[in-house]
Amino acid sequence: MEKVMKERLAESPDLHKRLIPTYQPWCRRLTPGDAYLTALQAPNAELVDTPIETVTENGIRTVGGGSHDYDIIVAATGFVNSRVVPWTMKGRGGVLLSDRWREDSEGYLSVCAPDMPNYFSIGCGPNFTIANGSVLSALGFVSDYILRWAVKIASEDIRSICVKDEVVEAYNIYLQEILRRTAWNKDCESWYKKGRKDEYRTGITAIYAGSMMHFKEMLDTIRGEDFDIAYRSRNRFSFVGNGMTKLDFEEGADLAWYLSQSMKLENAV
């Protein structure tokens, strides 16, 4: 990687120390294209990496008194990744999600949050697969998971589901232990790391600790034992109804269709 960057910067060796990172690759998000290395060497381009002091009437003044005149200033300052939600989300006992995630953004499979019944997030939960593969595919995996829960809730007379606190704690301790051994945990400044660091936590709140296929497999099954489930009626089996199915009442329906899927024994007498 360093060799390729030096080749791209062959005409400006003075930019090597200013642009080539010294930390391990993947510690920070990789730039998706390297054409900017060529663009920075154009006659009408100048790399200014001195901190900005203020925006003036004619452009920008940098720390130390440098003045740069511009017709247009494009702000590309990134985005907030603290996981502290900007909306009011109040859960069990009046707990606010913004307060719960202010220091430790800990969720469950990046989809559910502690103390938040019937709360599902798509792509904005902690430790999502933001750099593990196709984000669009991951959004589809999460959507399928949520729909499986929706079907279960609607068909089994469920009032609410909420991931258990002890489950969230155990899940995140294991998750962080995996992340501790990855390149993302190396020594660099990164927007991946917006959480608190201690003996259990790496501070990495943006990245899932596994491959895209691993994330999908984790979402393929509803682990009901990880949730507090409240039902609308006193007996959780009220959804059983009268013991009959819709198919039982359909005229001409094949009520023994499952026999065709039974194992066929070869050479059966």
Notable traits:
269 residues, three-stranded antiparallel sheet, 7 helices, alpha+beta, two-stranded antiparallel sheet, single chain
Task: Present the secondary structure layout.
Layout: H1 2-8, H2 16-19, H3 35-39, E1 52-55, E2 59-62, E3 67-69, H4 97-100, H5 135-155, E4 158-163, H6 165-179, H7 212-219, E5 227-231
Antiparallel strand pairs: 1-2, 2-3, 4-5
Helix pairs in contact: 5-7
Structure notes:
There is one protein chain. By secondary structure, the protein is an alpha+beta fold. Helix content is 24%, strand content 8%. The chain has 7 helices and 5 strands; from the N terminus they run αααβββααβααβ. The protein has helices at residues 2-8, 16-19, 35-39, 97-100, 135-155, 165-179, 212-219, and strands spanning 52-55, 59-62, 67-69, 158-163, 227-231. Strands 1-2-3 form a 3-stranded antiparallel β-sheet, with no helix packed on it. A two-stranded antiparallel sheet has the order 4-5. β1 (52-55) and β2 form a beta hairpin. α5 (135-155) packs parallel to α7 (212-219).
